């Protein structure tokens, strides 16, 4: 069998789920119909409820569209190995890091080592680390890591080590009993421990003074410094057969006057620097906290990059984002496993999975904005390759860069650039300068797109808009494992940043609806993107709806049918089916009921805190009153504290907690008022006072906001909500109650 398929596209059957989708949809429709025809319809309360419920139905439709025909891709790397190593394209691997304090260098080093040791010809791999922190510590740590890689990579290859991030590998004892092996294992482990020790003991100030190679870092700071590029290891110069991939440290130039565009800016610099050095046709991008967990990842990705008749099917190949430090039952609702399995596979069945910022393989030409048709193998290129001048306008005028881009655009996947890396340092410095992008298309039609703190979704969308499809890569074991933030504040910061970026996309000319009208973003794919993009927009609707229950209890009114009315069964059935549907999704993904509860609870908390703040931030930005920034996610820290329960919600005085704390308080107050009225027999029946429905709404919300309830009432230290937040929340509640009462 000469051409056994490298990949198979397997549609996933979901007839029962489709039926359930329709049941929920019809209940939503029934609720709307009931509301529109009920006698209460003219009160503003009913209008607010109607608008919110219409929005929920729209969301449900968007979700249905996205999940409707999911697919999975099966890859066969064993069939690839029948091809020789010469038939594999080169891959440039990019790792981004930004802050040596929030992102300890030891973690970065582990990520890099796991990548250097992947099963792929060493001469075809190169690893670039971008350091936005411009930290001599990071550079030092990587240089030491390169020295350790000399032992580590051959060791992994020789013994077929499963997980090639040393901190994981050495966290358990080897099961092989062989004495020689054990001796070697102990030796390498000692070397690794010493490496960690050296990195952890190193101090910035003494490093730059004593170490000549690190003198470049003198006198700069992370916001204002020139480019520093260091070839830490050049594989082409290695004499041994058992080499390991080249390792290059890049800290791009930063000047206060130039916007550096956060991670997107860093990725664009890495793209150009790697273009003048190794110029691989495929690029792999990994966050610094995400190690390669499956040594065969690149081979799996190659099955999808080389395995289709037409390249258009895999403009990029994305591996799911999965976490290794995941707490049991996902207490902070940030493992997004169900989202991946339900929405992600659904996307994969449309124009393809979204780009998730890490664990993704891109074709370099896709990043250069080349549309798919001028690359099909069948049709000869009609337009011809772009002229020198054209490329100069788009990519900037660096000569080596344009030359390398021409070779990429001509489409030769197997070309290897054999240059002495150190001879190209000057060119690399030129393209890493902060003024290089002025008057070029970088950040617009070329490279990672600027203007959103969720640059990944935006960049992926641009690629889909050019007409490319993307493929979802599923491997067993998982391709990469990352670290999820632990603790309340870190999770909410992360959600806030995502939502801010998503709303920036919606409010810009890159809005998927516009893009699908003007470009080649498919209509259903556009709707699927909207499911994610509208996160922050959900906040105001969900907030309004969650105020209805307390409003009714406080003001002795109602917005839902009474238990005695026939209409009551509609919201009841909807509430039950919707929650059972979600619970079943978690069961289907082999997750616990507890994980479902935590996630659905976190959805309410995130919506009223992170998404709401993101919504307001972007509104302010649109009015020109503030700027959005990329806040780097803090990685596990406090877990070392004594008696610390990592699964418990913690608080700080950030404004993100105020609205959620206020909602928790308001619902408790409302229940108290409502209960008092029932006891006193003061529920007014004629005016339609609150019924079971309103009580259930408030109780449900109190349960959802339980971490806030305990934080308000009993929590001590970081488990308690700080007084400043409590006070502001209380003021909000008082203002609301006042408004409510005046309104009636
Ligand atoms: O100015 C910056 C800021 C961040 N980063 C890097 O960007 C990556 C992602 O940052 P992190 O704080 O870890 O964010 P996460 O919330 O974990 O990231 C998710 O969301 C981001 C978009 O908001 C994507 O870029 C990421 O790939 C995706 O994993 C890290 O490697 C950082 O070092 C930079 O290189 N420069
Ligand atoms: Mn991260």
From TrEMBL:
InterPro entries: Cellulose_synth, Nucleotide-diphossugar_trans. The active site is at 132, 456. The keyword Transferase applies. Coiled coil: none annotated. One of its GO terms (molecular function) is glycosyltransferase activity. This is Cellulose synthase-like protein H1. It comes from the Eukaryota. The chain crosses the membrane at residues 45-62, 568-584, 605-624, 656-679, 691-709, 721-741. Mn(2+) binds at residues 263, 287. It is found in: Endomembrane system. GO terms for cellular component: endomembrane system. It is a multi-pass membrane protein. The keyword Lipoprotein does not apply. UDP-alpha-D-glucose binds at residues 103, 132. Keywords: Cell wall biogenesis/degradation, Glycosyltransferase, Membrane, Transferase, Transmembrane, Transmembrane helix. GO terms for biological process: cell wall organization; plant-type cell wall organization or biogenesis.
């Amino acid at each position: 069998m000469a051409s056994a398929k490298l990949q198979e596209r397997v549609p996933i059957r979901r007839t029962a789920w489709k039926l359930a989708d329709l049941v929920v949809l019809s209940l939503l429709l029934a609720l709307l119909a009931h509301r529109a025809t009920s006698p209460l319809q003219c009160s503003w309360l009913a209008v607010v409820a109607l608008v919110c419920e219409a929005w929920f139905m729209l969301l449900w439709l968007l979700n249905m569209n996205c999940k409707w025909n999911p697919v999975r891709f099966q890859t066969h790397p064993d069939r690839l190995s029948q091809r020789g190593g010469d038939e594999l394209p080169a891959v440039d691997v990019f790792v981004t890091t930004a802050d040596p304090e929030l992102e300890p260098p030891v973690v970065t080093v582990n990520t890099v080592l796991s990548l250097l040791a992947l099963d792929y010809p060493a001469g075809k791999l190169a690893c670039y680390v971008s350091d936005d922190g411009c930290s001599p510590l990071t550079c030092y740590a990587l240089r030491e890591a390169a020295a350790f890689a000399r032992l580590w990579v051959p060791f992994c290859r020789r013994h077929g080590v499963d997980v090639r991030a040393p901190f994981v590998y050495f966290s358990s004892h080897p099961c092989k009993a062989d004495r020689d092996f054990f001796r070697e294992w102990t030796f390498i482990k000692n070397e690794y421990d010493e490496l960690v020790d050296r990195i952890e003991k190193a101090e910035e100030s003494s490093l730059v003074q004593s170490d000549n190679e690190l003198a470049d870092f003198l006198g700069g700071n992370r916001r204002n410094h020139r480019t520093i590029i260091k070839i830490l290891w050049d594989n082409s110069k290695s004499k041994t057969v058992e080499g390991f991939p080249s390792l290059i440290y890049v800290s791009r130039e930063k000047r206060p006057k130039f916007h550096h565009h956060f991670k997107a800016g860093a990725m664009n610099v890495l793209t150009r620097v790697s273009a003048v050095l190794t110029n691989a046709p495929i690029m792999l991008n990994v966050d610094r906290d995400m190690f390669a967990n499956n040594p065969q990842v690149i081979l799996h990705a190659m099955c999808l990059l080389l395995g289709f008749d037409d390249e258009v099917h895999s403009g990029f190949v994305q591996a799911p984002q999965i976490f290794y430090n995941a707490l049991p039952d996902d207490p902070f609702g940030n493992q997004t496993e169900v989202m991946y399995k339900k929405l992600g596979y659904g996307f994969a069945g449309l124009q393809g999975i979204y780009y998730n910022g890490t664990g993704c393989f891109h074709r370099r030409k896709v990043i250069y904005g080349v549309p798919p048709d001028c690359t099909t193998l069948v049709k000869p290129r009609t337009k011809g390759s772009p002229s020198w001048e054209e490329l100069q306008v788009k990519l900037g005028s660096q000569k080596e860069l344009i030359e390398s881009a021409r070779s990429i655009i001509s489409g030769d996947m197997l070309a290897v650039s054999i240059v002495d890396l150190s001879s190209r340092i000057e060119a690399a410095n030129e393209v890493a300068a902060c003024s290089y992008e002025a008057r070029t298309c970088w950040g617009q039609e070329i490279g990672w797109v600027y203007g959103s703190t969720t640059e990944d979704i935006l960049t992926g969308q641009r690629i889909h808009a050019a007409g490319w499809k993307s493929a979802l890569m599923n491997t067993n074991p998982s391709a990469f494992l990352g670290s999820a933030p632990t603790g309340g504040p870190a999770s909410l910061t992360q959600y806030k940043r995502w939502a801010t970026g998503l709303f920036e996309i919606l409010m810009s000319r890159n809005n998927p609806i516009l893009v699908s009208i003007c470009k080649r973003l498919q209509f259903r794919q556009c709707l699927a993107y909207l499911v994610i993009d509208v996160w922050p927009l959900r906040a105001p609707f969900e907030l309004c709806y969650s105020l209805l229950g307390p409003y009714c209890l406080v003001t002795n009114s109602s917005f839902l049918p009474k238990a005695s009315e026939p209409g009551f069964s509609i919201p009841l059935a909807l509430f039950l089916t919707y929650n059972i549907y979600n619970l079943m999704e978690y069961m289907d993904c082999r997750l616990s009921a507890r994980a479902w509860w935590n996630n659905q609870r976190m959805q309410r908390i995130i919506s009223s805190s992170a998404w709401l703040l993101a919504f307001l931030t972007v509104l302010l930005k649109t009015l020109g009153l503030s700027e959005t920034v990329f806040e780097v996610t803090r990685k596990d820290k406090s877990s070392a504290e004594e008696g610390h329960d990592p699964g418990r919600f913690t608080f700080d005085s950030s404004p993100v907690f105020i609205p959620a704390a206020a909602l928790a308080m308001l619902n408790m107050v409302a229940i108290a008022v409502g209960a008092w009225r029932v006891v006193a027999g003061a529920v007014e029946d004629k005016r339609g006072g609150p019924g079971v429905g309103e009580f259930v709404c408030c109780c449900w919300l109190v349960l959802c906001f339980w971490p806030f309830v305990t934080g308000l009432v009993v929590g001590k230290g970081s488990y308690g909500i700080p007084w400043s937040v409590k006070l502001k929340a209380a003021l909000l509640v008082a203002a609301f109650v006042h408004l409510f009462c005046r309104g009636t």
